[in-house]
Design brief:
Number of strands: 15
CATH class: Alpha Beta
Shape: globular
Distance between the termini: 31 Å
CATH topology: Creatine Amidinohydrolase
CATH architecture: Alpha-Beta Complex
CATH superfamily: Creatinase/methionine aminopeptidase superfamily
Strand content: 15-25%
Oligomer: single chain
Strand order of the largest sheet: 8-7-9-14-15
Length: about 280
């Protein structure tokens, strides 16, 4: 499989991707702080937009044809692309927030999953939190693998192997990660499971959004009547974590983490290196 040379950015272009990455991180941090039982997903959308615009950014999801919100809010059995609205979060809900910012024509894209506290159902909260934790840790293992991989698709094997080692989880196959840069979605695809093809070479200038999507059940999905929201066919709840990561001459840097990914990678023996 061949890939266009323009999947690799120049050092100057990588530096231009720092600002939108940090704006994306800020929006997710603000939304995380705003999540509680009773808040509407539309209120969370407003929080994210305010955070992005405060840093000089534009919500890049709004540039998707037909989409007019800053974030996607996917609750319980909704996996991705959930539309913010009047729905109020309830105790025990598991909600995935996907956000992105554009600054100067360059993009950031990231996602988190949060479980709304519910002291009356500790077992349910624990099960859903474990799902989120497994998904997040699979993301960090994929990022760590990127630091030493020769070809991109090696990281999908690392992500999938980790998830499978943790229990009976479903790894979505119809939705995968992607390259990112001038457009929010670019080549190449970034798989969350093992595939035969090695993919493009991992070398300085490669920037990818890694985003495992994992369920407590099966991997089959359908799109709801709003023509956006992707939900599990069996009603199983899901989690979604994502970061945009740059490979440069000195190493890797997680563009959508305020610390470049240091905290998430420390226990995996990888030290991110700031883009010079």
């Amino acid at each position: 499989m061949s890939f266009r040379r323009n999947i690799y950015k120049s050092p100057a272009e990588l530096r231009l991707m720092i600002a939108p990455g940090l704006a994306t991180a800020a929006s997710l941090g603000a939304v995380r702080s705003g999540i509680h039982a009773g808040v509407t997903t539309l209120e969370l959308d407003a929080i994210a937009e305010t955070a992005i615009r405060a840093l000089g950014g534009v919500p890049n999801f709004m540039k998707e044809p037909g989409y007019r919100h800053t974030i996607c809010t996917s609750v319980n059995d909704d996996v991705v692309h959930g539309i913010p609205g009047t729905r109020k979060l309830e105790p025990g809900d598991i909600v995935s927030i996907d956000s992105g910012a554009e600054i100067g024509g360059w993009n950031g894209d990231a996602a988190i999953t949060v479980v709304v506290p519910d002291p009356t159902r500790p077992a349910l909260v624990a099960e859903r939190q474990e799902l989120s934790d497994v998904t997040e840790q699979s993301l960090w293992r994929g990022i760590a693998a990127l630091a030493n991989a020769t070809h991109l698709n090696h990281i999908g094997g690392e992500i999938g192997d980790y998830i499978e080692s943790q229990g009976q989880y479903g790894i979505l196959e119809d939705y995968v990660g992607h390259g990112i840069g001038r457009s929010m979605h670019e080549e190449p695809p970034v798989f969350n499971y093992r595939v035969r093809d090695r993919g493009p070479r991992v070398r300085p200038g490669l920037v990818v959004a890694i985003e495992p999507m994992v369920t407590l059940g099966g991997i089959d999905t359908f799109t709801r009547e709003d023509e956006w929201t992707v939900a599990t066919l069996d009603g199983a709840v899901a989690a979604h974590w994502e970061h945009s990561v740059a490979v440069h001459a000195g190493g890797i840097w997680v563009l959508t983490a305020e610390d470049g990914g240091a905290a998430g990678l420390e226990h995996l023996g990888v030290v991110p290196v700031s883009i010079a």
